[in-house]
Every structure is written in structure tokens, then in C-alpha cells.
Amino acid sequence: MSVACGVECVVVLGCLRWAWKRCTYIGSYDSESWTAATADEFDSVPRVCRLILAVYEPDLLCPKYAPAGGYRLNPDWVVKRVAYDHTLGHAPPYLIYADHDNREIVMAIRGLNLLSESDYKLLLDNRLGKQMFDGGYVHYGLLKSATWVLNAESETLRRLWEESGRCYKMVFTGHSLGSGVAALLSVIVVNHGDRLGGIPRSLVKCYAVAPARCMSLNLAVKYADVINSVILQDDFLPRTPTPLEDIFKSVFCLPCLLFLVCLRDTFIPEGRKLRDPRRLYAPGRVYHIVERKFCRCGRFPPEVRTAIPVDGRFEHIVLSCNATSDHAIIWIEREAEKALGNLKEQDAETVTTPPKVQKFERILTLEKEHKDALERAVSLNIPHAATSAEEEPPEEGSSTFKEPREEHAGLEAQTDKSFCKNARNNWNEAVEKLFHKSESGKLLLKRDDSATASGSGSTTDR
């Protein structure tokens, strides 16, 4: 009897300890060991947030929902606006903006519309491990959407970049659902820059605001020099390993889902999570905006921390009443603007070296952090992790890019097997196996072809 009572006490104490640790865990703990961001590297974040908000505006000449200070853009520089009527459900609405002041060509993609059936279809078009891409796994529906956007706008983006003297940056940005589309679009452009006139990797940037988990860990680290994720304190989406399609199926019971996921992940070892190649993560370098502290009321002056985390990459669910409000683009823009102002004030007070020298030193630091993260991923045996972010040279006997030819739909399974055997194939081989060009020259996923073929009555081996 006494033994049973002792065991029961131990179990109760263990449960109480777990509940205390989970309920007192706050979002700022995820980045407490990270370094502070600088004003130069964070300068673009409030600006792209305003451009994302501008996608929601029906008329930029007479704005109804402008943030404090307005959108601060020139309506004459808005090259194109695309609504749901034009995307036909293939992608969320977006706009293309030629920012001549900052020498950037920006594509901003809006977030999930809870009233749009097509947005849900993008989210639901996936399952764990369904699509392998560039040596890792990605969200299939978001990849299809990114491919559609590139096919639709490649000529426009190419023309703008060439008219700018081939020196402007190409910036893709999005919020929530749009962040996943923007991140995968930037990966395609980096590896297939000829679609945009041969733009180099160094001129492609992506800002994923309140990012969705859309790519495996090896890809998230590999493209950290291109993709930047912006997360406001307790935002639930980057922390929730549950697939996106399951999250938004349960959007009206989200607190219950977050609690169950939190309870489940307690019993999953960290090593097991890292070794699962199908597990998706928030992409790239992470900028974490922190504005609240434990057992403190109200919001404090926001600070920005940054790193390229490998292990412990926002794996803890935060049981917070702000988990959903921190996902709102309005709050993120507001706090990012405050944080940038604080960073500029700090820089003005602590200037000890010329700004150009500071900026050059910070660039070298960012490059070193990326290299260290790649090496860390290899040391932890992350599946398909590479020691270099650049393309690997073709293997012996393999040629450069060949014009893809149409193949039987039954080869889809063989394609996945070949990727598993040699996940580090170069990009040309990846394009050859995943895409083919239509008669108009557009890239199409072969999975789409198999669906079309089966719909027309052709027989395929599944």
C-alpha cells in the first residue's frame, strides 16, 4: 500500500512539474541565447509588412485600412495587382511593386483568407512526405502555388529586372499562407534564375512573415542566406509541427489543438524529431521580435534577436493568450516598426566605427553564422544536410540541363526512390525529374500531368 502511495505521489509531482514548465514557458525563451539584430539588416521588415497590408487594400489611392503613418509607397510604382478572380484559386492575391527608392522589385503575397475556399484547397493539398524537392521535403500545395505564380509572372519580373539595369534586388514576401508560397518561390528562382533573366542568388531575398512550416530542416538551413523568417513573440504557426492542413481544419478549436500537440511532443525525443526528413520547419534565418516578459504586465519596447537555429528551432508550443494575436500582420507591422526605431536609436548612441565598416563586418558575421549552421546540421546527422549552400557539381556521366521530356505517369514512384538514394542531386537533375515544360515554355509539375492523364481515361501504374 505504501509503495503504491509513493508511486502515485511521484506521478502526481511529475505531472505538476510538467504543467508548471509548460504553462510558464514563454516565447522569448526560444531566442534568449541569440544575438541582437542590427538596424541595417532589419530595415526591410516593416517596409515589406506594409506592402503585404497593401494587398488587402481595395484602392491604394483612397486607402481605408492604412497602418499608422500610411503605406509609404508610391501608387504609380505598383506594376500589377492580382486578385482572386485572376489567380483562379491557384494562389493567394498578390501585388508587384517596383521600389526605386530602395532599388528592389517586390512581390507581396497576402495571407490566408478564412472565407476563401481556394486557400483551404492549397493547404489541404498535402500529406507528410508527399513531395520531395531539391533534396528535401516541402509542402506540395504551396509548391504548386509557387510554380503557378512563377509561370504567370516570370516575364513581368524579368522585364522589370532588366529595365532596372539588372541591379535591383528581387524580393518575395508573404504572410502566413503567402509566406510559404514566397519562400518556395524564392527557392525555385535561386536555383532556376534563367527564368528571370539569369538573376544571381545574391540579389534574391525572401521575407516570410509569420511563416508557415513549409520545408524540411536541411532546406531551411541551406537557404538561410536567402530566406528570412519574421516571428512575433508567441506566434503559434511557426511552432506547430502539426501539418498546416490539420491546423486550419481545427481553426475554430485551435487552443485545444495546441494543448494536445504540446502534450504529444513532450514524449518525442529531440533526436527523433531531427532525424525525421519529412518534418517541416519555418524557413531560413529567423528574426524573433520579443516584447513581453514572464510575470510582467503590458508590452515592453520590442527587441529583435536573430539566428539560424538548427536544433531547438521553435519546437515548443507556447500556451499563451497571445498565440493567435501575434500571428496578425497588423500587430507584426506595428511592433516591427517600433523595434526598428529602437535599433536605430541604439546605433546612434553607440557609434564607434564608420557605418560602412560596421555593415561590412556584419555581412561577414552573417556569412559565418550560415556556414556554422550548415556544419551544425551535418554534425547532427540531419537527413540530406549539405556543407555548402551552393549547387553541387554534376556527377560524372551526368550532363548539364537537358530539356525535360514527357514520361509515363508511373515513373513518379521511381522519381521519389531515386531522390532517396541520392538526395544531393544537382538542381538540373531535380528539374528534369519534377518538372516538364509545356508547349508555351511554362514549368509544370509532373504530378499534375499524372492527374490530368488519369482524368482523361489513360491508365497509369500507381
Give the secondary structure arrangement, pairings included.
Layout: H1 2-23, E1 35-36, H2 39-42, H3 44-56, E2 78-82, H4 84-87, E3 94-99, E4 104-109, H5 117-124, E5 131-133, E6 136-138, H6 140-163, E7 169-175, H7 177-191, E8 204-209, E9 215-216, H8 217-222, E10 227-232, H9 244-249, H10 254-265, H11 270-275, E11 280-281, E12 285-290, E13 303-307, H12 329-349, H13 355-379, H14 412-421, H15 427-434, E14 435-437, E15 443-445, H16 446-455
Helix pairs in contact: 3-12, 5-6, 6-7
Biased composition (Low complexity): 451-462
Pfam family, one: Lipase_3
GO molecular function: hydrolase activity
Task: Provide a compact summary of the structure.
By secondary structure, the protein is α/β, with parallel strands linked by helices. Helix content is 42%, strand content 14%.
Could you characterize the architecture of this molecule?
This protein is of the alpha/beta class and 462 residues long. The protein contains 16 helices and 15 strands. The strands form 4 sheets. It has a 9-stranded mixed sheet, sandwiched between helices. α6 (140-163) crosses α7. Residues 391-425 and 450-462 have low confidence and may be disordered.
**Order of the strands making up the biggest sheet:** 1-13-12-10-8-7-4-3-2
Instruction: Report the C-alpha radius of gyration, rounded.
Output: 23 Å
Major sheet summary line: 9 strands, mixed
Unreliable stretches: 391-425, 450-462
Number of β-strand runs: 15
So what's the overall shape? globular
Instruction: Please state the average pLDDT score.
Output: 80
Taking the alpha carbons of the first and last residues, their distance comes to: 59 Å
Proportion in helices: 40-55%
- Report the β-strand fraction as a percent range: 5-15%
**If helices are DSSP runs of H or I spanning 4 or more residues, what is the number of helices?**
16
